[in-house]
Amino acid sequence: MTTGTDTLTRHWIDGTWQEGPGSIAVVNPATEETIAEVPAGGASEIDTAVVAARHAFPAWAATPLADRVATVLAIREGIKARSAEIAASITAEMGSPTKFANSVQVGMPIATSKGVAGLAESFPWTEEIGNSLVVREPIGVVGAVTPWNYPLHQVVAKVAPALVAGCTIVLKPSEVAPLTAGILADITREAGLPGGVFNVVHGTGPDAGEALAKHPLVDMVSFTGSVPAGRRVQEVAAATVKRVALELGGKSANIVLDDADLTQAVKLGLGNCFINGGQTCTAWTRLLVPESLHDQVVEMAVEQSAKYTVGDPTEESTRIGPMSSDRQRERVEHYITQGVEEGAELAAGGPGRPEGLERGAYVRPTIFSGVRPDMTIAQEEIFGPVLSVMPYADEDEAVEIANATVYGLAGAVFAGSQERGVEVAKRMRTGQVDVNGGAFNPLAPFGGYKQSGTGRELGRYGLEEFLEVKSIQL
Ligand code: NAD
Known about the structure:
7-stranded mixed β-sheet, disordered N terminus, binds nicotinamide-adenine-dinucleotide, EC 1.2.1.3, Ald_DH_CS_CYS
């Protein structure tokens, strides 16, 4: 692995690796060992990077589209070539099991970057409306702030469309899992991206993140993370009236209708709840089932959960690694304890560490049954492997419960027919719904209703985020 002690842990500004003041320890959550340190950048490093991005903007925006697309594809090739190194970096910095890191953590950015590169040519960059020529132009300098749960995917979901659009970027990756961003910076160098077009500044949210969001030369902030941090980004960005795109948290409902294939609904439902140790914004953490099927579904889910081996993320057989940090482990445990205190029934798991895992940020995959909509575990995002099974009386009540949180990011419906599933999906106030296990589509718009965010990522809609629209009258 190249990460750890070398240059890739420095800031990447204006095409050079730059050391900075301060340091942030990167801790492997499985071993509890410090594996690297990155600098703790602040307003000064952000300013240097933003000025570099500003200088690089006119030339990059004027680079022919075909060349920008070719560069994004070259970066994609670089990711493919270094996929094992990237997967190992992600496993080390945030605990994703090796198998999942290879297939999904690295697989998704490869798919989404291909998606946006592929649609660039057919995208309507210019359009005639009456006597007007309407042109789409890059918005300018983009400040990107990303979380730790998918350290490459969340970055590429912003960087690839921004580069295709003709924008330049300053990225502030998560301080919990910052190492993979360094590998990506190196890949952009190898791909021949001109200096200043893509920059990485390490640091904490309140220091580097806020400095980026409020910088007057940043035209847009694209943020992925929690609701409180997103709210703060929106506040500090408001002073300069810049565009803010927010991809925030979720509390997604999986509605299982009375005529659904229960085996499929429970298997996929649990898989989507426990995905990446439950540290996934779209996780289907609420399983809504007809009252009459509640006990049967709980039994099936408990049986299924036994297949989720918890342990060392580098082991091939591991399906759930440690939480990304000890702080996250404490947070998840706190919610599990609160669920018990509020009267939800523990069907599997519970507070405390899994047997034999005394060291590392491990939690027990947990299933609560008989969860009521007013309970904290039914309302708040836990971000760990915790499923709440919730009974409902009829379809109307199922939709009402599904919509009764501040979030609206994702969801699912399992129904006897696709038509019935789609009808229920349309009633859900959420940005994505999978019917009967519909597969992830890297070209489909991705984003939230309500407090799950503003704006959309991926595909054509994701590209539009990074564009301004100009009308020229003829
Ligand atoms: P977080 O909000 O703690 O941190 C995310 C990023 O924001 C980090 O880089 C952090 O340093 C930065 N940040 C924190 N405070 C800031 C501030 N005041 N100003 C500017 N930047 C600040 O989130 P996390 O714990 O890293 O990630 C988990 C959260 O991310 C969950 O809520 C999850 O649902 C959400 N998420 C959403 C999506 C999506 O696409 N909707 C995807 C992944 C994760």
